Amino acid sequence: MARIVIIGAGISGLAAAARLATLGHRVTVCEASGTYGGMLGRYERDGFSFDTGPGLLTLPAVYRDLALKSGREPLEQLVELAPVAPESRHLFPDGTDLLLPNASRGGVAQALDEAFGPGSGERWGEVMNRARTVWEATRRPLLEEPLPADPGPLRTDPYPAPPRRGLARFSRRTSTLADVAQRELGGHPGLTALLYEYALRFGLSPDEAPAGASVLPYMEQSFGVWYVTGGNRALAEAVYRRCEQRGVEFHFDTPVTEVLVADGSARGVAAGERRFEADLVLSAVDARTLARRGIVPGLDPKFGEGPSTGRLTVLLALRGARPAGTAYRTVVHARDLERELDRVFERPGLPEYPTVQVHRPDDPTLRPDDAHEAATLTVTVPDPDELAELAPDFEAYADHLLDHLAATGIDLRERVLWREVLPPTAALLPPSLAGADGRFLNPPNDSGIPGLYLIGATVHPGGGLARAGMSASITAAGIGPA
C-alpha cells in the first residue's frame, strides 16, 4: 500500500482518489478551497442553483468506467443521466434557425439541408468523415493512454487531405480549421460559424488550430451530449461520496505551498507549516500554477504555458416558467464572426456582438418552483489577465448581452429577478490535438520528477470534463494496485 497525496479536489483529483483508494492505496487529498469539485462549482441563491462550470457531459463512458471500477455499479445509480434533445439550437445573424438532433449524424445532415439548402448536409458530412479518421488515429494516444514517450508522430495532423481538383491541386494542403472552412465548406457562413463554435468553446483560434480539431464536432455529433440532473455539480458530489466510501482523507482550506523532494523524488507536500509525507504525489491543480508559484522545485516557470482565453459567465434568475419546447442549449452566433475572432485572439477586448451559449436546463432541482427559471450565458473572451488590464465594465457588458439576445428573439430582459456576473478568472483549456508540429499537445502526466504525477485539464489528455477524468484513469492505471 502506497501513501499517496493528491493536490486539489477538482474532478480529476476526486476521480484519481476514488480509483487509487479502490486499488488499496492510502489516499489523502489537500484542497486549497473549502469545498471539492474545482471547475464543477455551484452558485446558490434564493432557491436557484447554477453550474459555474461546464453544464453538459460528453463521453459519459469515462465516468461510467469510474463508477464500475470504484464501486461495481452503473453511473446511473449515482446520478440521473439523460441525453439532451435536441443537442442544440443555433441562431445565425441572417435569421436562420437550426435545430441539431443528438447523436445522429444523419439527422444533422438533414437539419443542415433544411436550414442552409440541399447539399449542405453532404458537405458537412464529408468533413465529419475525415474527422472520423482523426478520431480513429488519435483516440488511444490522445485520450486513453499515456502520452507516448516519443510524441513525434502526433506532431503531424492525421486529418486526411480531401480530393483536390483543377488549380486546387497546386495550393498548399489543408492544415488549419480555417482551411477546412474555406476549402471544404466553401466558406459558407453558417457552416463556418457552426464549425468555429466548437473551437471557440475550447478557446481555440480557427486560424491556428489544426484541421484535426474537426474531431470536436465529430465526437459530439457521433456519441451525443448528456445532462446530469442537478447539473454537473451533482456528478462531483457523487464522486466525492465514492471517495468517502473508499476511505479517502480530505483536508480542505489547505493550500499546498511546496512539493517536498528528497534525493530527487517527491516525498510529500507542505501546506504552510503542515507536512504530509507520501510515497507518491499527484497534482490535480493547474500545471502552470505549479511552475509560476515555485510549488515544484526546479520546474520550468514556463511549463505548460501557451495561448489562453477565458469564459465570462452570467447567471440569470428569471421570473416566469420556462417556455415549453425550449432547447437546453441555444447558441447565438456572432453578428460578425471575423470581428469576434479578432477581439478574442488578436486585439484583446470584449467582443461586441459575440457568440453566446444560452443554457436553460429543464431541471426542477435548479429553481425554487415551476414559476421560475434558471439560465446561464457564457461567452469566450480574451486571456483573463490581459482583459483585466483593460478594466472592462462587466455589468454593462451583461446588459449588452441581454440586448444582443433580444435582437435574435430571446428576450429575457423583463424576466430577470436578479443576475450574477462571474468575470473570467481562469483560462479555457483545450484538449490535446495532433498536428501543428505538436503545439497543441498538453504536457505528459509524468512530471519528469520521480514520484510526482500531473493530472487534470492542463496536462494530457487536456481540457474538458471527460478528458480530466481520463487523466485520472490513465495515471491510476500506471500506478496500479497496492
Output the structural class.
Answer: alpha/beta
Quantity of strands, as a count: 20
- Based on CA inertia axes, which overall geometry fits? globular
| CATH superfamily caption of the largest domain | FAD/NAD(P)-binding domain
* CATH architecture heading of the largest domain: 3-Layer(bba) Sandwich
Please work out how many helical segments DSSP would assign. Answer: 13
**Low-pLDDT regions:** none
Concise structural overview:
The chain has helices spanning 11-22, 61-71, 105-116, 120-144, 177-184, 189-201, 215-223, 232-245, 287-292, 337-346, 384-390, 394-406, 465-479, and strands spanning 3-7, 26-30, 42-45, 48-51, 57-58, 81-83, 88-91, 97-100, 225-228, 249-251, 258-262, 265-271, 274-277, 280-283, 309-319, 329-332, 356-359, 372-382, 416-422, 452-454. The chain is an alpha/beta fold.
Task: Please specify the SSE layout and strand pairing.
Blueprint: E1 3-7, H1 11-22, E2 26-30, E3 42-45, E4 48-51, E5 57-58, H2 61-71, E6 81-83, E7 88-91, E8 97-100, H3 105-116, H4 120-144, H5 177-184, H6 189-201, H7 215-223, E9 225-228, H8 232-245, E10 249-251, E11 258-262, E12 265-271, E13 274-277, E14 280-283, H9 287-292, E15 309-319, E16 329-332, H10 337-346, E17 356-359, E18 372-382, H11 384-390, H12 394-406, E19 416-422, E20 452-454, H13 465-479
Parallel strand pairs: 1-2, 1-14, 2-10, 7-16, 14-20
Antiparallel strand pairs: 3-4, 5-9, 6-9, 7-8, 11-12, 12-13, 15-18, 15-19, 16-17, 17-18
